[in-house]
Amino acid sequence: MREPPTVVIVMPAFNEAAVIGTVLSKIPAKIESFNTISIVVDDGSIDLTDEIARKAGAHVIRHMANVGVGAATITGLRAAKQLDAEIIGTMDADGQHDPAELERLVQCLIDGPFDVVIGSRLRIPSGMPLSRFAANLLLNFVTFVVYRKIVSDSQSGFKVFSKQALAAIDLNSSGYEICSEIIGEIYRKNLRYKSVPIRAVYTRYSRAKGQHFLNGINLILGLFIRLMRRT
Amino acid sequence: MFLLVSKVFALMLAAIVFAKSYVDFRSGTESLKVFLFWTVTWGMIVVIALFPSIIDYILSLAGGRGVGLGTFFGMAIVFLFFIVYRIYVQLEQLEQKLTRTIQELALRDDWRSKHSEPRV
What we know:
The complex is a heterodimer of chains A (231) and B (120).
Chain A: E1 6-13, H1 20-25, E2 30-31, E3 34-43, H2 49-55, E4 59-63, H3 69-82, E5 87-90, H4 102-111, E6 116-120, H5 130-147, E7 159-162, H6 163-168, H7 178-188, E8 193-197, H8 204-209, H9 213-230
Parallel strand pairs in A: 1-3, 1-5, 3-4, 6-8
Antiparallel strand pairs in A: 2-3, 5-7, 6-7
Helix pairs in contact in A: 5-7, 5-9
Chain B: H1 2-27, H2 32-50, H3 53-63, H4 69-112
Helix pairs in contact in B: 1-2
């Protein structure tokens, strides 16, 4: 008998034991007619992230060392492909994204129909610290320079992909630059995409876990190295 | 006195680099090309440290009065930057290989055993 189609949620996580259980518990068991499966890619955490995620019902894949959020996302997307997922979502494990909004993103993907739907924090920036808002605008600009594609939130980790889109895109970033690389792939593969406003939850914890100034510098450097390699 | 200390220091560094490079070459962790590169590079450094007047000779060959010591050091800095660039590139390649290995192992050990067949 054919199993019902699934939405697979990929969540890269590094030392998120404090919040990952709560985040996973909020992921709906069913979205539309799809069953939901959560995959947590534990990127070499030294706390109990993997154990807590397992107890919360997620499938856990563990990197034996910390190799970066991009690499963890790619591992999770490869696993989702192996599960033959119909729709694949990615979201942060630090509680910045509200799992209740998954349904709206998936609905938008189906209704479009679109290949990729990006949750944009910058379209409802209330609550976002000014420094982070400015940094995101700068990174939107850098993404545009490197990939020639302007989107409202190039650094959002909250996205959903169709099965076909996931098969088409080719990713190899290890770090935070994966978000911009996905934008580049949308452009190169001519995928249909839409930005949907989402509300980002900024707690003291998520602010501490998010991107820092040095990460931003590394990200910009990584993007320019990619630009040089392409030319 | 300062010149003597510099010469001894250069000789000591060269001896350490050569010994380390030779041991790595013998054990097979370093290629012949890399071993020869470091041997020749540090050999040149030792020669210049022992006979600094060679710089004057090179400068006179390179263009007479027009070429100053600044030009010579400028070229040395460019050379050092080239080496730093090569190290950076190789480090990045190594990091990529490490990442791919960790990903493959994670998917093989944690995942493939449980989900070997895709759903139909």
